[in-house]
Write a structure and sequence with these properties.
By secondary structure, the chain is of the alpha/beta class. The protein is built from 23 helices and 15 strands.
Length: 533
């Protein structure tokens, strides 16, 4: 085993919003915004309420099969899972994420593993049903700057490209330079070289970013049966025609989501604000918002215009030209999948909580929202430093300056001037009493001298603390070293560092260890700490 697992309650980390924490804890004020919580009893009730009879499993399986065949390495386990979806007692557990370069931050991997393990847990708890893990590729996303880089060992590797539109359709020209740069950063060892070869095969031997990402995820996690779904599919989009029309022509989602936001706002900050139309128009090299324009519609930042009949024709005949935004995508997902649970990060869970009314209006099953596993990795060196500093792992979630103050106080708890200040005040109290009996006009100047003396003691105290801080400079530097490792760029490690850092060290065993550790207990959810052995 590579790691020893520990957990800590989410509220010991101070990393999450009030709404997310309240959802995880099942707080009463959040219950109106979802149907069922992520525990076994709730899943039992969920299956009684939702049967997914309206899901077109034939079209779904056909699309998934065709997509799986786009790459050569779709596993037999994944193909079996796709076939299982033909059966009415088979359900999906889904997560979604952007097509980040080299998978981006390491939580990309944790998220998919969480989804695989949640499906496994449900299979163990509900023997009469079957559950298939799904990774929804955000191939239609057009924010290239969000996905074109990754971080490893304090360095940033960037893929430069002038391409526009949906990133899944981008060709992978120019990634070779990024791979070469990453190779230099990871160093020359067997694990690093294996990973670099995988990146070269994925990105340089596939025509676009969607296929490259599919190949990469298959290589890393395909043996565990992950099904990869690309929503950018004409036949799947055709299943979503009615919802597209309702959003575009009736602004249904805008109205209902805003009603929920108005309920949330007095207590919580909201994550996403809907637009009147939550749809993009998409062609090769273009993905821009659709807006009402007088009696017709326009595509923002282009000269493209449609009348209502023209747009209706596009929806009916070429629905692949329309792309849902962050508000409508969850609805699209739940329309085409028999999906019982969505595995998401804290931001995702929060914006999903805005959507319950919208799902009810469209009569589409709203999934159980399950937080992904949150992970912090601590190597032996970091653990040793913490022990020497007499700090716990949960202390590392505190502000760095606070940890430094705590260190100074711990190392020099006997050095303080509070008693001296009290003694000084007592002396001056006696002096002031004597002065008041002789000449009351001297009281003011005596009070001023008292304050001057106390200020002098405060200055001495500060000088002592500065001297102590300098004396403890090595330990202080250790604290900042630990913070930099666990919170690079003041960001949780999992949201910054690419998994390649760990793969280069541990090899493929790293993935299998994560599979073993990032499990689900349907009655308890906590932050995961993995301590290198």
């Amino acid at each position: 085993m590579l790691f020893t697992k520990q957990t800590t309650p989410l509220n010991t980390t101070s990393l999450f919003s009030g709404l997310f924490n309240d959802y995880v804890n099942g707080a009463a004020q959040v219950k109106p915004f979802y149907d069922f919580h992520f525990n076994k009893a709730s899943f039992d009730l969920y299956f009684q309420k939702n049967n997914f009879e309206k899901v077109d499993r034939t079209i779904l399986v056909k699309a998934l099969t065709q997509q799986a065949d786009l790459v050569s390495n779709t596993s037999a386990t994944t193909k079996t899972n796709i076939t299982l979806l033909e059966k009415p007692n088979t359900y999906t557990v889904t997560t979604g994420h952007q097509l980040c370069l080299f998978t981006g931050p390491s939580y990309f991997i944790y998220k998919i593993i969480s989804t695989i393990n949640l499906a496994k847990t449900l299979n163990q708890n509900f023997k009469d049903k079957q559950f298939v893990p799904v990774y929804w590729m955000a191939s239609e996303d057009h924010d290239f700057e969000e996905i074109n880089h990754t971080h490893a060992f304090g360095k940033t590797v960037t893929w430069n490209s002038e391409q526009k539109g949906s990133v899944g359709e981008f060709n992978t020209n120019g990634i070779q330079e990024a791979i070469t740069e990453l190779k230099t950063i990871l160093g020359d060892n067997e694990n690093a070289n294996t990973l670099i070869q995988l990146f070269e095969t994925a990105y340089l031997k596939h025509p676009n970013l969607a296929d490259a990402t599919r190949y990469l995820v298959n290589e890393l996690l395909g043996e565990y049966g992950i099904v990869i779904l690309d929503g950018n599919d004409p036949e799947l989009k055709a299943l979503f025609k009615d919802e597209l029309k309702s959003d575009i022509f009736e602004n249904t989602s805008f109205t209902l989501v805003n009603a929920t936001i108005n309920q949330l706002k007095p207590t919580y900050s909201v994550q996403v604000n809907p637009r009147e139309i939550n749809v993009f128009y998409k062609e090769k090299g273009t993905r821009e918002r659709l807006e009402k324009d007088g009696n017709g519609f326009k595509v923002v930042n282009t000269s493209i215009r449609f009348s209502k009949p023209e747009l209706e024709t596009i929806i009916d005949s070429s629905p692949e030209k329309l792309s849902p935004n962050v508000v409508l995508r969850p609805l699209y997902q739940q329309k085409i999948l028999p999906n019982v649970a969505y595995v998401g990060g804290p931001g995702e869970i929060v914006y999903w909580l805005e959507y319950k009314k919208m799902f009810e209006a469209y009569n589409i099953p709203y999934p159980i929202l399950v937080p992904r596993n949150f992970v912090m990795l601590l190597d032996k060196n970091t653990q040793t430093k913490l022990q020497k500093l007499n700090l716990s792992i949960t202390d590392t979630f505190n502000d760095g300056e606070e940890l430094v103050k705590q260190l100074i106080k711990t190392q020099h708890a006997d050095i303080h001037l509070e008693n001296e200040k009290k003694q000084l005040s007592d002396v001056f109290a006696t002096v002031i009493e004597t002065v008041s009996q002789i000449d009351k006009s001297l009281i003011g100047s005596t009070e001023a001298e008292k304050q001057k003396a106390i200020n002098g003691l405060n200055a001495i105290e500060q000088k002592i603390n500065r001297a102590l801080k300098q004396k403890s400079e090595t330990d202080v530097n250790q604290i900042w070293s630990i913070k930099g490792k666990l919170f690079p760029n003041n960001t949780p490690q999992e949201r910054w560092d690419n998994f390649s850092m760990y793969y280069a060290k541990y090899g493929k065993t790293f993935i299998s260890e994560l599979m073993n550790e990032l499990t689900y207990d349907l009655e308890k959810f906590e932050y995961t700490l993995l301590l290198e052995q």
